[in-house]
UniProtKB/TrEMBL annotation:
Pathway terms, separated by semicolons: Antibiotic biosynthesis; vancomycin biosynthesis
Keywords: Heme, Iron, Metal-binding, Monooxygenase, Oxidoreductase
UniProt-listed CDD domains: Cyp158A-like
Gene Ontology MF: a single term: monooxygenase activity
Family to which the UniProt record says this protein belongs: Belongs to the cytochrome P450 family.
Species per Swiss-Prot/TrEMBL record: Amycolatopsis sacchari
Keyword Lipid biosynthesis: no
InterPro entries for this protein: Cyt_P450, Cyt_P450_B, Cyt_P450_CS, Cyt_P450_sf
PROSITE patterns given in the database record: CYTOCHROME_P450
Protein name: Cytochrome P450
Function: Involved in the coupling of aromatic side chains of the heptapeptide of vancomycin.
Keyword RNA-binding: no
The protein's required cofactors: heme
Amino acid sequence: MTTSEAEQQTLRYPLPAPAALEPPVEWAGLRQRCPVAKVRLPSGDQASLVTCYDDVKQMLSDPRFTRTGEGSARIAANESGGVFNSEMAHVLPQSGEGHQRWRRSIAKWFTAKRMAALRPDIAAMAERLIDEMTTHGAPADLKAHLGFPLPVWVICDLLGVPESDRDRFARWSDALLNLTRYDQAEVDDAQAQFTEYMAAHVAARRKNPADDLLSALAGGMSDPELIATGQGLLVAGHETTANMIGKMVGMLLADRTRWERLLADPSLVRTAVEEALRFDANAGFGMVRYLTEDIDIAGTAVPGGTTVVCSMAAANRDENAFQDAAVMDLARTPNPHLAFGAGAHSCLGQALARTELQTVLEVLLRRLPTLELAVPAAELRRVEGLAVGGLRELPVQW
């Protein structure tokens, strides 16, 4: 693809990939010859796609720009335009001091120290789930048996909501993260049910506080803010990590020499998790930024009023930022990947996600050293129609 061809062509986004764990073939060409590409989103609206590491980091770190603005592109095919235009997104402050104040009130619950204290409980839950999976017998879907229920249990415990409602949370989360899977009526119905559920939980916590995050926040937030915070953490706290557990194990088993290297040297678990986050080619939609003024990106003048899609996954494969970027190096260090974003909007729960991923991998290596894929890696299927990337299932045997 030449620069002129890329400039004239409007690509359909998200870009298709040849296999569930493989990157879109266009990424390398876009990074080299068209770092700001025109794309058409599932909504039909147009945006600009940024794929180079330095440009994505710059866009995510620039405090002038936030996720939405007057006239910003809608991402989803339904009328409201997707999660960035949802009621949940509008209730919480998206920029400035209000956003920073909200982040500070949440962040104290997600410190590395607090997450380290959770590690024994996470490991014990992983053990129980693996016990259930092995009792079920091989082949088994590791996503359904371990990848999904573990992060849901963790975030439910943090918020003080019953883990037994996890199937409802999954349905509501999927609707909020819709790109093309649900129509507006289905999205509205899920949003209404989710809001009603969380409103009742917030009311119960105000009446009878407990040792959970929402009880702790109740004194400094209004009911709408508490409801939206609970919804946001439930969606982000289980969808992304649940999918990442499956993808991480899938990547490690797709070339089983990777798994065997970890068996031989479990001290590599921490760097292996970071490399899985960097190497993830199926990370989902990316993050959007709405330009409130004209700027220059990689020598290209981009006018104010443009919605920019930042592909962190494409940036994480940038050869200018990572030596041998197309190679999964389990010992890679340093590894300044952008999987959790950058700047003021970087992922609040990254310490929790790292703790869960590291702990699950440690337990799996110890409990199931003979673990392998039950189907060829090329037959793994991607999650479709949602803003998060993942595998529909991860069939394994041992």
